[in-house]
Every structure is written in structure tokens, then in C-alpha cells.
Design brief:
The complex is a heterotrimer of chains A (291), B (342) and C (255). Chain B has 14 helices and 4 strands. With 342 residues, chain B is mainly alpha-helical. Chain B is globular and about 75 Å long. Chain C has a domain of 124 residues: Rossmann fold, CATH 3.40.50. Helices cover 36% and strands 24% of the residues of chain C. The chains are: A mainly alpha (291), B mainly alpha (342), C alpha/beta (255). At the A-B interface, helix 3, helix 4, helix 9 and helix 11 of A face helix 5, helix 8, helix 10 and helix 12 of B.
């Protein structure tokens, strides 16, 4: 049935978008820095996992743990070594992280990671047929992980001490400083978490296809599109944005033609920005409302 | 520096109080003041005449440097209004495709297609970007980064405007020397006009937006509308660069939206000094020949640009131009701290 | 007496995440009048002004100006129909010379028509004149100094000069005197009195009660976003709610 498969694959697609954009959104929401190196970290995680699994032949779980830790450290290092020096000047933050992201991506291109041999294994092979729609386990796992990450994010920001500290930081840095929260360490954690999330996303999604440099740009684009759509500082908005874009893509690619998928992003961004510039659920105030 | 000492900076006698006011008392001082500028202008104007000395290859490099300089000028203009563009390729590509369309489908000659593409492209860019201008912060950077990549994908996927093949066989320009001359003259003109522009009251209003947009609103001016005007003015040299380059190579394709046209002007502007127009041009003329020499490294060059970008943003945010200017107009000496004198 | 309504505010409300910053505030400003807004810190005074001048959009309620509904108007449009405001936290253009700060408001559609001249023409002259009016010494270097290097009292007066440069019918001042020295306040009060004499109207938020009562002829007192009192300065001071909410022992000393 067409409708049924559209529903299912729309959900899968939404979950993929969610995974791709969580890291970026988390870092931005908690530290206020738009990490343009997100795509680079994502791709790095993919190649690192490939190296650990295929070249070194490590067991899957160990490789996953190492990858996540390395990218988390990379995220923290980006903050401690670079961003901290330009902190507060939003424009320089953007330029600096952008430069890091591009250098990672283009370095891989130069090193020759452009052939078709790079791919990650699925965690569990096999597929499941529900009614008339066939779905492989990896895609089901993606939905589950996306859901778990959303829950984790909520619990982190609402239940744990560090999460509350980070949230306080994002809302008012000076007040947070005055009650004894070290804003630099809080931001470092948020970068590390963003890196780890990017790695988890890469490990979940990349097995669906081959690893390719342009995925790095695409992930960053998707993260930007989704966050702009949902509102820069709202997790609910992010999830809503993912669901809307995810389904919109599946619908256009089944009903019109697959290559119109890209146009959906652009149209969505432009429409939302024209109608409600702060995003669907954005709390980010418009210029006029900032006093 | 020795302990207990500090660096003292003293303005040369010729430079008085404010940045723009100079006290000139002799021809020597006039020369001191005008020398660097005249040297740069004369150098640029004479460069195309020395084709026999430099060879066609380095003339082409000069041409590309001018193209990047135009994009960097455009970037600096946007920066002066408080907007950071991560996608100069957007403006460049729009100008390039417009001229390709005009020439190939409407049959207009370069004399008409280039100016028309410049203006139409700038109008289109402004309309597309207009909604974002209501917001402050990183939105402008986000959207300018996303637009060229999306447009490239859409052209690739849908096959419109020549698709992956591009539009080729466009009408040729009279020759390399002509192209170089046109680009050099435009670079100089744009630099001069932009510098003058920011001295007018209108330019002052645009600079004020960068400084404090709330006060501009409270001063009775629509920030969004003035930003839109700024985007239009800034887009003009960039779309022109795209149009000129398209006619020079007689082909327009997806590479017009390539990352290189975003990252090179950005790096040139940051290396030269953000907000200084001459700095951006200087940066372009340093970077482009440098990158030509490193052609053997292929895509590693983009990594190098990024590294350079990072280095300057973190290490020398004032840029080469301001740094050189300071050294030129100031003495520096190490003097002992006051306490030690006593 | 047949007084014309200049500004009529009805039932204005604004919530910030569940906190009622302004709660059902109504008042009317007649032509030739001036209103002082008092109240403890966080009682919604600045929010009220932001709602009137368009810097915030109200959740409900209306603002009528000269009979026209201007609820939620864009701030720059509010300026161009004659409502000019100052900011509590100064917002000058730090990277310009002091007098250049005034070029921006002088460039607004409201004033632009009346002035000609480019870089060194009328606008600069008018700007320096305005600065002199608010107490910048004309013969000194102060108007030509970078704004970032001026002391806070000057920045406050620069705010006032910006408001005046817009030729407003309704002057809205948000804690103009805070951060000024006693002598600066003393020299600013006559300027405000002169503005009123010129036939302009004024809404003033102020914590300096003594000076405020000299300037305005009507007081509104806010507490927790609600209007708790309205009347002439003497009337308001004697109201029990006002004393309790805000003035405390100071009220007795003034009365």
C-alpha cells in the first residue's frame, strides 16, 4: 500500500533527520554557539568507525565506544582550543567553526576517501515485514535510538545537575556565572555532547549507504534547515521540524520525483523564514522584540 | 620583552588625533601618505600591460585575483552592516547563471548581458535574503551558507539551466587583456566608491546598524529595509564578478556555486582585515597567487585556506592591512615601566 | 474643559513566561499633559513603555495615538508618527564620534525632509547644536570624541539628544536620571521643562521622585504590573497603597 509505506518511511526519514541534527541543536541550545563543524565531526566519526572495524578489526561495541569518546573529545577540543578565544563575538565563532568543519571535510577528500569502498556494517541484519511494508532492522533501530536520544536530551536538561546548569547558562550567562556555574566548562560539555551525538548519529545512519564526503555538507545543511524550521532554541520545534521535513520529503519523492527532495528543504526554509522568521516554535525573539 | 618594560606606541607626526586627519607640511610627507596607495593603484593599472613579461598564465591569475577581490569587497560591505556571509558563491553563482541565461536563451551580447545580470542578480539575491534580515545573529550566515549548496543540488537534480552540463558556448569577450583590464578597473572603482560611501550620512546609517540596531530602530529607521539596501549594494560587485567570469570562460555551470567562491573571499577578507575594503583586495591578491602556486596540492588548498582562516580569526583578528597600517604610522619602542624609574 | 486625547491606553497586558509583567493597564494622556510612571523595580514600567513604543507586542489591549490604533506598531513607524523614546540602558553607537550618533535619527523620514546637506552640511551642524542644547560643551572636543570614551552621564544626555533630534510630539523617557550625577540632573531638569513648554508631551519613568514631581503633572503608580494609583503627584503620594508598595518612608520626607 502506498499510503502505508509513505507513513512508515516518513517516520524513518524523520528519525534520520532528528539524529543528524540533535548534536548541532544541542550545542547551540546549551552554549549559544552554532557549531558549523558539525558535519565534519559526523563524517570523521564515520571514517573512524570504518577504520576501527574494517582495518583494525575491533569488535563492534569497542569500536562504537572509542568513536563516541574520540568525537566527544574532539568537540571539547574545538571549544577549548579555538572557540574559547573568539567567544562572545558571534561572527567570529561562526567563521572559526566553519573553518574547522571545512578543513576536516576537505582533508578527507584530499586523502582520497572518495571511493565506494567505505561503508559501515549494520548492527543487526535482516528485515521485518509489517502488513505489506518491508523494513530492515537498522531502520527500526534508528527510530528507537532517535526516540531514546530525545528522551535523554529531555532528562538531561530537566533532571540532572549539569543539564540544569547548562540550561541556566543558555538562558542567562551572567546570572549563571554569578551563582557559580563555570560557563566555559559548561560550554565545553555541550560541545563534547554535541560531538558524541554526531558520532552516534553517524554510526546509526551511515550503514544505510556508503560514506561519502558530501554527506558531511549534507548533514550540516540538514541540521541548519531543521533548526531554522523548528526554531533555533526549541527542542520540541526541532522534533516538529524533523517530522514535517521528513514526511514532506517522502511525499514529494514518491508522488513527484526523487530529485525534488532537495527542493523541499529550500522551499521549507524560505517559506518559514518569510512567514515566521523565528521558526515554528522558536523562542528566539525577533529583532523588534529584543529590548 | 624584558620584564618591567612595556611597549610604547607613538603616532608619527603626520597623523593627527583622528584616523582621517593628517597634518601635511612637505612634499615628502605627501609622498609618505600617498605612496602606498599610488603604488597599489599604479601597479594594478599597469599590470595588464606587462603581458609579455608575466605571460598569459599569470595574467589569468591576476584576473581571478580581481574576481575574488570583488567578492571580498562585497563580503566586507556586508560585514560593515553586521552581516556575515558564508556563501559569497550564492551571489557569484546567481550573477553567472543570469548572464548565461541572458546570453544563451535571449541572445543578448556581453555588453548588455553583464550589466543586466549584475542588476537582476542583485535584485534576486536581495529578495531571497530579505525575510532573514528581520532577524539578527547567525541567521544570515546560516542562509547564505545553505543557499548555494541547495541551488547546486536543485540544478543538478532537476536539470534546469543546463543541469550538470551547464550552459556553454557563450559569446566571447575581446580577449584576456580586456578581461583583466575590466576587472582591475572595477576593483579599483568599487573600492573607491565603497570607501567614499561609508563617509556619507547614508553610509553612516548602515554602519550604525552594525553598532547597535535597536538605536537605529529608535531613531526612526527600518533596520530590515536598510539592511536590504545594503545587501543589494553589496551584491552588485559579486554578481558582476560572476557575470564577467562566465563570459570570460564562455561557460556557466554548477561550479559557479562551488565552495571555493565562498571560502576564498571569506579568507581573503579575514586575512586582509574584516571591515577594511583595501584589506580584502590585498588579501585576495596575496591568496590567489599563493593558491595557484599550490595547485599541485589539489583540494588540500581548501584545507589550507581554512587553516589560514582559523589562524587569523584566532591569532590576528585585525588582519594584515590594519597591522601594516599601524606599523606604518606608528613608532614602537620598549620603555621601562614608570615604577622602575622612581 | 475640552481636552484632546493624545494617547489612550486600554487594558494592556503582557506575559513573560507566565509572569504578568503588565496586567490590564489603562490610562489616558491629554494634550499638554505629562505623565510620570513610578513603581518598585520589576513592576513593569519599562515593559509598559516598550509596549507603547512598539518594541514589544502586547498580548491584549489597545494603544490609541491621536485617535489612531497603533497597537503593536513597528518601532520605527512609531518614531515617525512622533513617539520618540530613550533607553534605560544607554544604547549609543560606540564606534562613532558623539555628534555622528545624531546623524542616524536626523536621517529618519520624520526629520530628513526638513534638513538638507550631506557629509559636512546641515546635519552635522544640527547635531552639534542639539548636543549643545543637552549640555555638551560646544567649544570643547567632547562632541567630536569617540562615543565609547565618554562618561556615563554624557551618554545619558546623548540619549536625550537623540530623542529631541526626532522632533517628537510625545517624548518617552525611561529612567533618564539614573546614572547621572546630582549636578547633571539639576542641569537636565530645565531642559525637560523647556521641552514641555514647547508644547510636547512626556511620559517619564523615574526613581528620582523629587525631580519627577517638579516636571510632570500626573503620576501613575505600578506594582506587579497592575496600576495601583493615578492622580496628581500630591494625591498619589497620599494614597496608602502607593506608600506601602513603593515610597515607604521617603514619601513622608517629601510631603
Amino acid at each position: 500500500m502506498l499510503l502505508e509505506s509513505m507513513l512508515v518511511f516518513g517516520l524513518v526519514n524523520s528519525a534520520i533527520l532528528m539524529l543528524m541534527s540533535f548534536g548541532f541543536s544541542l550545542t547551540f541550545g546549551l552554549s549559544g554557539v552554532a557549531n558549523f563543524a558539525h558535519g565534519g565531526i559526523y563524517l570523521l566519526a564515520g571514517y573512524l568507525a570504518f577504520f576501527l572495524l574494517r582495518t583494525l578489526g575491533l569488535p563492534y561495541l569497542l569500536a562504537v565506544i572509542i568513536t563516541v569518546i574520540v568525537t566527544a573529545l574532539l568537540g571539547a577540543a574545538i571549544y577549548r582550543l579555538v572557540v574559547i578565544r573568539v567567544r562572545g563575538i558571534a561572527l567570529n565563532e561562526v567563521i572559526a567553526t566553519f573553518a574547522i568543519g571545512i578543513s576536516i571535510l576537505e582533508l578527507f577528500r584530499w586523502l582520497g576517501f572518495i571511493t565506494y569502498e567505505f561503508s559501515l556494517p549494520c548492527i543487526v541484519d535482516g528485515r521485518l515485514t509489517l502488513f505489506q511494508t518491508t523494513l530492515d532492522y537498522q531502520r527500526i533501530l534508528i527510530i528507537v535510538v532517535a526516540f531514546l536520544m530525545a528522551v535523554f536530551l529531555w532528562a538531561l536538561t530537566h533532571k540532572t545537575r549539569i543539564g540544569l546548569a547548562l540550561l541556566g547558562m543558555a538562558q542567562n550567562e551572567y546570572t549563571a556565572l554569578s551563582v557559580g556555574i563555570d560557563s566555559d566548562w559548561a560550554a565545553t560539555y555541550s560541545f563534547a555532547l554535541g560531538g558524541a551525538f554526531a558520532a552516534i548519529a553517524a554510526l546509526m545512519i551511515l550503514p544505510l549507504g556508503i560514506i561519502n564526503i558530501n554527506i558531511g555538507y549534507e548533514v550540516l545543511l540538514i541540521a541548519l534547515a531543521v533548526t531554522v524550521l523548528g526554531g533555533l532554541e526549541s527542542t520540541k520545534g526541532l522534533i516538529l521540524g524533523c517530522i514535517i521535513l521528513g514526511y514532506a520529503q517522502v511525499i514529494t519523492s514518491t508522488l513527484i520525483a526523487p530529485h525534488w527532495k532537495e527542493a523541499v528543504y529550500l522551499a521549507a526554509i524560505l517559506i518559514v523564514l518569510a512567514v515566521k522568521p523565528s521558526g515554528l516554535l522558536g523562542k528566539f525573539k525577533e529583532l523588534e522584540e529584543r529590548v | 620583552m624584558k620584564a618591567g618594560h612595556r611597549k610604547e606606541r607613538i603616532d608619527r607626526g603626520i597623523k593627527v588625533r583622528a584616523d582621517e586627519i593628517f597634518a601635511i607640511s612637505s612634499y615628502r610627507e605627501i609622498l609618505y601618505l600617498m605612496g602606498p596607495r599610488l603604488l597599489a593603484i599604479m601597479g594594478l593599472l599597469l599590470f595588464p600591460l606587462f603581458r609579455d613579461v608575466t605571460g598569459a598564465y599569470w595574467q589569468t591569475v591576476g584576473f581571478i585575483a580581481c574576481i575574488i577581490a570583488l567578492l571580498a569587497l562585497s563580503w566586507n560591505f556586508l560585514f560593515s552592516v553586521g552581516l556575515v556571509s558564508l556563501g559569497q558563491a550564492f551571489f557569484f553563482g546567481v550573477g553567472a547563471y543570469f548572464t548565461g541565461y541572458f546570453n544563451h536563451f535571449l541572445g543578448l551580447g556581453p555588453l548588455f548581458s553583464i550589466p543586466l545580470a549584475t542588476v537582476c542578480g542583485a535584485v534576486l539575491c536581495t529578495i531571497v535574503i530579505f525575510p532573514v534580515l528581520r532577524l539578527r545573529g547567525i541567521y544570515f550566515a546560516l542562509i547564505t551558507f545553505a543557499l548555494p549548496l541547495f541551488l547546486m543540488r536543485i540544478i543538478e537534480a532537476t536539470g534546469y539551466l543546463g543541469g550538470t552540463e551547464g550552459i556553454s558556448g557563450l559569446q566571447r569577450l575581446p580577449g584576456l587583456t580586456f578581461s583583466v583590464y575590466v576587472s582591475v578597473v572595477v576593483v579599483l572603482a568599487v573600492t573607491f566608491i565603497y570607501l567614499r560611501f561609508f563617509d556619507t550620512d547614508y553610509g553612516l546609517v548602515l554602519r550604525a546598524i552594525h553598532d547597535n540596531d535597536m538605536s537605529v530602530l529608535a531613531g526612526g529607521l527600518s533596520v530590515q529595509w536598510y539592511k536590504a539596501q545594503a545587501v543589494f549594494i553589496a551584491a552588485l560587485p559579486a554578481t558582476f564578478a560572476g557575470a564577467l567570469m562566465t563570459h570570460h570562460y564562455r561557460i556557466v555551470g554548477m561550479p559557479a556555486f562551488a565552495m571555493e567562491y565562498s571560502i576564498l573571499p571569506l579568507t581573503a577578507a579575514v586575512v586582509g582585515g574584516t571591515g577594511t575594503f583595501a584589506g580584502g583586495v590585498l588579501g585576495a591578491f596575496i591568496l590567489v597567487p599563493f593558491s595557484e602556486m599550490l595547485r599541485a596540492f589539489g583540494t588540500l588548498r581548501i584545507v589550507m585556506y581554512s587553516a589560514l582562516l582559523l589562524l587569523f580569526v584566532v591569532g590576528l583578528p585585525e588582519g594584515i592591512y590594519r597591522f601594516a597600517q599601524r606599523k606604518y604610522f606608528q613608532f614602537e619602542r620598549i620603555v621601562p615601566l614608570e615604577e622602575e624609574k622612581q | 474643559m475640552n481636552k484632546k486625547e493624545l494617547l489612550k491606553v486600554t487594558g494592556l497586558c503582557k506575559n513573560f513566561g507566565g509572569v504578568k509583567a503588565v496586567d490590564n493597564v489603562s490610562f489616558t494622556l491629554y494634550e499638554g499633559e505629562s505623565i510620570g510612571v513610578i513603581g518598585p523595580n520589576g513592576s513593569g514600567k519599562s515593559t509598559l513603555i516598550n509596549l507603547i513604543t512598539g518594541f514589544l507586542k502586547p498580548d491584549s489591549g489597545t494603544v490609541l495615538y491621536k485617535g489612531k490604533n497603533i497597537t503593536g506598531i513597528a518601532p520605527y513607524k512609531a518614531v515617525n508618527i512622533g513617539i520618540a523614546r530613550s533607553f534605560q540602558m544607554v544604547r549609543p553607537f560606540y564606534n562613532m564620534e558623539a555628534y555622528k550618533n545624531l546623524i542616524v535619527p536626523l536621517y529618519s523620514p520624520r526629520v530628513k525632509k526638513q534638513l538638507k546637506g550631506g557629509s559636512y552640511g546641515d546635519r552635522d551642524e544640527v547635531a552639534i547644536q542639539l548636543l549643545e542644547d543637552v549640555g555638551f560643551e560646544r567649544e570643547s572636543q567632547i562632541p567630536y570624541k569617540m562615543t565609547g570614551s565618554l562618561p556615563h552621564g554624557y551618554l545619558k544626555r546623548l540619549e536625550l539628544a537623540r530623542v529631541l533630534s526626532l522632533e517628537p510630539d510625545l517624548v518617552v523617557l525611561d529612567e533618564l536620571f539614573s546614572g547621572m550625577s546630582m549636578s547633571e540632573v539639576a542641569s537636565t531638569v530645565p531642559i525637560l521643562e523647556r521641552i514641555l513648554k514647547e508644547g510636547r508631551n512626556m511620559i517619564m519613568i523615574e526613581h528620582r521622585i523629587r525631580e519627577l514631581f517638579r516636571i510632570v503633572n500626573k503620576i501613575i503608580c505600578l506594582n506587579f504590573g497592575k496600576k495601583i494609583a493615578e492622580g496628581t503627584p500630591v494625591e498619589v503620594m497620599q494614597m496608602k497603597e502607593v506608600k506601602e508598595a513603593y515610597l515607604g518612608s521617603e514619601a513622608d520626607s517629601i510631603a
